Amino acid sequence: xxxxxxxxxxxxxxxxxxxxxxxxxAIVLIASMDPITSYYLPQIMEAVGxxxxxxxxxxxxxxxxxxxxxxxxQISSLGVLIIVLMSMGTIAGERKSGVSxxxxxxxxxxxxxxxxxxxxxxVLVWASLFLGMLSSWYYVNILFGVLSFISILKVVFFYGLWxxxxxTVSIFYNTLFKTPGLVAFLSIAxxxxxxxxxxxxxxxxxxxxxxxxxxxxxxxVTGSVSADLLATALITIGIxxxxxxxxxxxxxxxxxxx
Amino acid sequence: MQELFNEINWAVIAPFLVIQAILLLVALIDLFxxxxxxxxxxxxxxxxxxxxxIGPILYFIFGRRQ
Lengths: 258, 66
Known about the structure:
The complex is a heterodimer of chains A (258) and B (66).
Chain A: H1 2-16, H2 19-39, H3 41-48, H4 64-87, H5 92-97, H6 99-104, H7 110-143, H8 149-176, H9 180-200, H10 212-222, H11 227-257
Chain B: H1 2-7, H2 10-33, H3 41-50, H4 54-63
């Protein structure tokens, strides 16, 4: 099947340019940084010094769920940045260098081309997130306390939806513009704008994908999946589908216009 | 400082160091095998080796030509 071939080409390419090595490792580092530094905070403070004599510093007592959410918030900032930067050239770069013409001159459908790219990116993102949260879970368990593996899997599933949305936004801008830098800038601007809108109009956008980490935290504390979380997840999937269809459409019209 | 060194649980830190070493090695190997980078090669060697953790990542994002 054509789609499988394109998808395999995508995986091979991401392996050849080392994305399969450095993206998971980078996400693992990002996810495990906070559990380690917050565990060693007293020693770090002592080593750095600068505390006046006799001053006592009350350190908060971290719950395992707090620490997992620290990892998530690190992935939300640095991890999202990495995903956007590594995906900024997936289609835009190929169009600039003329590789996409080489592929699309053959009877390759636009649907297959875009969705194979998208799926290749998503597999990488999900694998990285899984490994990152696995390392965070490992550190939480040896440093802070027990957290069940099932709850980490749930976190990966729901948070993966948010990262999928980020990747899809990047794919969407990839089909619109040929300059990778512009793609990265617009993707990050869109994500920041959507979080700003969610914050300002909090009541109206209760189920905005930006709120998904709030509900994930709720899920970690209570242990049950709330209706809000499910609704947010469904809306996120819906926006991903719309963006994907939109990117196939814009790519078709753009390529035909050229 | 020595005390701090002994207090550290190496089972915690070791994976961290290993990952950093892998990133550094893969970046350096690729740097030597690749024809051309964005910007001079010696600059990237410095960035990869000296800038902790993010050096290799910076190289993979910006240094390699697509």
